[in-house]
Queue: 2 jobs
Job 1
Amino acid sequence: MAKDMTLLWGSGSPPCWRVMIALEEKQLQGYNQKLLSFEKAEHKSKEVLDINPRGQLPAFKHGDNILNESYAACMYLESRFRSQGPQLIPEGQLEQALMYQRMFEVLNLSDKLSNVIYYNYRVPEGERHDSAIKRNKENLATEIKLWEGYFQKVEVGSYLAGKAFSLADVIVFPVIAYAFRFGLSTERYPKLGAYYNMMKDRPSVKATWPPHWLENPQGGDTLKEF
Amino acid sequence: MAKDMTLLWGSGSPPCWRVMIALEEKQLQGYNQKLLSFEKAEHKSKEVLDINPRGQLPAFKHGDNILNESYAACMYLESRFRSQGPQLIPEGQLEQALMYQRMFEVLNLSDKLSNVIYYNYRVPEGERHDSAIKRNKENLATEIKLWEGYFQKVEVGSYLAGKAFSLADVIVFPVIAYAFRFGLSTERYPKLGAYYNMMKDRPSVKATWPPHWLENPQGGDTLKEF
């Protein structure tokens, strides 16, 4: 079925992980895939650039259709394979509104996470400032508290947009997992922690768990103080 | 019809403009709306924070459904009012794939535009670096060239995702308009310019043209050198 699909991906990248979860949920196993190394800058290789001119992962193709943005790939897969696997866009108006709001507002969380975790990677040495680091951390702390608050309103065993698993979970979960991987405390953020623990046992999530996280279960501690 | 909708917005903000174009296209005129001033920091007022906890515009409500992210609002409106006005998600697989890819990859363009246009606004004085300004400009120039290239493949009179106007145009056009407002040259980027000129006469776009752009048709010249 999925032999006409190709995914070039990097381990641990939330955008790549989203596409892999969506493919699992839509029962599209068996696609062509290749794990590339960010450290070796393989995302800047010709193989990637031929599909994704920005040299970013994921690079994803279905036949001649190119969908490199994780949101684009997930929405496309749900639209193309609606009746395959669970329906990832709820019918209810209320659930649909909540799904769209959460899945797009998580861009704030992922930006703020990256600004903290990848500060040294993104900002050249001569341009670094303690004041910027402090501000980035404050912005992230405020954002994480907002999400803990959202999850306080989610019933136990429910998902981000209601009783059913949806695209909001496909999109948001890898970002939450990333925060815990970098040391966020499940004690200080119990609702986020409960969601994380429920989601990590979902078959589509287990089947796509970042391989280098499995090899090395101990993550970073950048977010330990949060 | 649209009396149960409320939009708080700022003039010229591409995310606000998207929602307004979508509302026009879906024939949802007559919604409650209030123009707020970024300069007076009205986006941080209680009125906004009650709907959008990040204090950002747009802040948008339909009944009890809150959709503050422009993508969320546009997708929700299309889903809720599919048969009203033109269908904004094409049926064709190819067109749909292209629509999703373009509407999400434009986040790269808007980020890179903001990094250049709002550098002084975003970066406190003591943290500014010429090397960062130079890098931001290079990244933006590369990105703009990529989009000029995309438009070279769009047939004259066609839209971003094919023969029909779609969500890709709703989402991408305000970003392109923004670039021209800040001085991008239609001579140097003729394909982007042709798209801009075609789109600005579309009734939904004309009806929602940023009021302070009308009052003061002369924009900035930050992008004149690009």
Job 2
Amino acid sequence: MARILDGKAIAKQVKDELRQRVSQLRETGLVPKLVVVLVGDDAASASYVRSKSRAAQDVGIDAEVIQMPANIAEDELIRALERLNEDNTVHAVLVQLPLPAHLDTDRILMHVHPAKDVDGFHPVNIGRYATGTPLLWPCTTAGILEILERSEIPIAGRTAVIVGRSRIVGWPTAQLLLAHNATVIQCHRQTVNLREYTRQADILVAAAGQPSLIGPDDVKVGATVIDVGINRVGGHLVGDVDFAAVEEKAGAITPVPGGVGPLTVAMLMKNTVHLAEIHQREKEGFR
Amino acid sequence: MARILDGKAIAKQVKDELRQRVSQLRETGLVPKLVVVLVGDDAASASYVRSKSRAAQDVGIDAEVIQMPANIAEDELIRALERLNEDNTVHAVLVQLPLPAHLDTDRILMHVHPAKDVDGFHPVNIGRYATGTPLLWPCTTAGILEILERSEIPIAGRTAVIVGRSRIVGWPTAQLLLAHNATVIQCHRQTVNLREYTRQADILVAAAGQPSLIGPDDVKVGATVIDVGINRVGGHLVGDVDFAAVEEKAGAITPVPGGVGPLTVAMLMKNTVHLAEIHQREKEGFR
């Protein structure tokens, strides 16, 4: 039976540590501030934003939600982002995705200043993944690293197989594991004989958004299985991995829910504090 | 016996096509212009720059070499780059690497405007590899694609194994093959049991800079082997692949010299013309 990697417990650890770090920063006069820009009134997005605000409050981060109408003009949204870029009290800016269809997401994300880009989606930040020296990693990817490191699962020299190459999770996770010196196999929708690759994995990251994609025959005995999928099936949340069956074979596995999910919000907070600290250091450098 | 992928012949094709394209552009009043910035008097760098100038002249591109002293101050070099960024007659800017040790290469490359970054080394351009919609690919990587496409070697759904993850060749080549829907295995110095991976390759790219790294036992029968290595051994140029032995087993193979090398310079010219055309289109868009 696999060891269960308890994301909720790890997220709690991360937030406990952050609460202390933030309280020390506040003593020096630095109040980390995150602004979430929410366009439109999508119920799911609104609910995500609420949970981000709650988490911020929980660790002592100042969080502000800017609500914009669904029909906002692209240039108006960009001007709002530019005002946030210039506002020295704001350390982190997040544009809640998805945006309404009339807005060009790529163009808009270009206007979040790279030094405030808490999601790590600006091309300059993406480009830095390649150099192995990014300012930060996207929240879910950073959460996967947190799980592996706190569970003392080695990465360097191991075979990491990532199924899914989304810009938000799969691709940056492949880059992170490469930066930590895994040999990385990047699989996706056009991969032929997926199982041939997944069975090689010491660390298998399932991020395809497809329930029951990974069964016991797809996994090597003793592998670490990280399930990033969040799929709603018959009113229940399930991942991309057939948990009950794979648990028998894997060495360690994240459940859904309660695995990677809780880390994503915790890492948003950690990234915010990280950006605030960098901002502070740079300000001191100018004194 | 493998088919020999003749890089010299393919580079000639590319340049012949470019010569025609440039001559048509010149008729419309657009003279593609490349500026090469050469710092110091390294003999190898000077020789590379000369061959780039010659190739430019050969296809009708206006090439200028700006020679700077080895002890130039970083800010002075950056100011020179900024002048080139503002010069509307310049379409492509290349900073010949390596730079003298007192200069911060990353910082300097940040100051080549992304729209003139003919090498594709600006973080914004690197970031665009991830979205699968880059402005251009780095010259050697683009040359590998040219070889595969002109030799009608399919990429999508095939297994591509890249040995070496340098920012200049290995890593961007992995991203290019991923963007063309290969399943990509990225290997490097810390990969354990390299052979286990290379033997899976339908397309094997050797870019480690290590003579005789790839022998016949490392290759699947019928594989396409792209040798990017350029190593000087006993006065001869050899690649990373033991050509004579691997040729017996591979389906297709590039020689060294005469494989990827000639494409790198040809693709610098193709990238220059590409940037000039984009510049022209954008200018027309503003009319």
